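dude i think i finally got it to work??
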Amino acid sequence: MSTTARQLRGKAARLARLLPSGPSSAARTPFVLLVVLLLSGGLITLLLLNSSLSQGSFRLSELKKRTTELTDQQQALQRDVDGRSAPDALARRARELGMVPGGSPAFLDTDGTVRGVPGEATAPPPPPSATTPSSGAADTEKDPAAEPSAPASATPGAAAGPGASPAPSAEPSPTPSPTSSGR
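look at this
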């Protein structure tokens, strides 16, 4: 056994001669500095990335809040438009402006003939007001001349009564039909 121990001592001695003798701390210093610089650079990069992401997160939450507010505003405006464009609201607003429903319509054919008999629009009696329900029949029986309605003399030569025939200038004259080259 002593020979194997001597050989190991001999091999270890030869290896010890290959390695430099003395403290080897000078060779470790640049490596340690490199590792410290890489770790600190990575840490700083992570901090900058984290702060950038949090700033983007705050901006995103502000934009989501603004989007919610604008969506609510848009829905409120759409409800307002829907309420004002409902048929009963349009009819009420038209009455407030003094408009009346149209009479029976007349149509023109492509050859210029009139189909149907046009009728004059007449104003229906105004509904009783809700502010004075106790006044009763005094409000409903108004003078027809005092009611605002479409003027009967808007067209020259218009008839004064409902049974009168229309003026000669009110009759439609045949109009030439437009020519189309597509047929």
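Residues 135-172 have pLDDT under 50 and may be disordered.
im so relieved honestly
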